[in-house]
Amino acid sequence: MVKNIVFDMGGVLVEFSPQKVLDRFFTKEESKFITENVFNTTMWRERDRGTLQSEQLLLNVRHLFSEEVYCKLRKFVLNFFAYMPEFDDVCETIKMLKEQGYGLYVLSNCSPDFYQNGQYIKSIRYFDGLLLSCDCGFLKPEPEIYEHLFNKFGLNAGECIFFDDLQENVDGAIAMGMQAFRFNHDDMQSFNAELRRVGVKI
Q: Can you tell me the distance from the alpha carbon of 24 to that of 21, in angstroms, rounded to the nearest whole number?
């Protein structure tokens, strides 16, 4: 029986489209270079792990960019959540689930920057617990982060369903005994159907 519903943040609670944002402010060539040298790097993962601060990451790549590009990049990195609009329909569903008495939790690969500029996400107020990768030093789909979630909040894996937009994270949750489903905001019908399948009235 499902008693707890666990959500990823980026791509589930909020839109996570760095490429879309990059394409708004940078040329195609600049966008590709930033993606390769910032977002698709070990440094970005270490930022989410909490072992590298955003300011240090920016200093590490400063020499790669012109002053103009670097200033725009710095603004983007340090205000990351401002470019991640909330999914209002997901927020409404979460509010309804809260009113029905389900335990609601966030499990996200996320940097400490969330605590400075991510509090605007309205749905956060409905959650009983929040576990960010930067708080425990582990990243999804590493088994330890799921174990940390269970231990921190006293959860039984068999009583949880997890929604994430990346299949590897879904597979990691399943391996740890949770029911899990890959979330796609363009297919809310399947999301609602999955909740109903596990007995959640929606």
A: 5
- Reference 166, options 129, 141, 191, 192; nearest CA is 141
pLDDT digits (tens, 9 = 90+) for 8-62: 999 999 998 888 889 999 999 999 999 999 999 999 999 999 999 999 999 999 9
Apex 148 CA angle, 136 and 108, nearest 5: 60
**Number of neighbouring beta carbons within 10 Å of residue 85:** 12
Q: What is each CA distance from 192 to 68, 105, 197, in whole angstroms?
A: 45, 18, 9
Q: How far apart are CA 126 and CA 124, in angstroms?
A: 5
Using one digit for the tens of pLDDT, what is the confidence trace for 118-155?
A: 777 889 999 999 999 999 999 999 999 999 999 999 99
User: Edge-to-edge, what's the strand order for the sheet holding 179-182?
Assistant: 129-132, 103-108, 4-7, 160-164, 179-182
Residue in this structure with the two tokens 């596990």, named with its chain if needed: 198
Beta bridge partners of 12: none
What does the chain come to in residues?
202
Distance of CA 52 to the CA centre of its chain: 18
- Tokens linked to 150: 């269970």
Full-prediction pTM beyond 0.85? yes
**What are the structure tokens assigned to 109, written together?**
């690969």
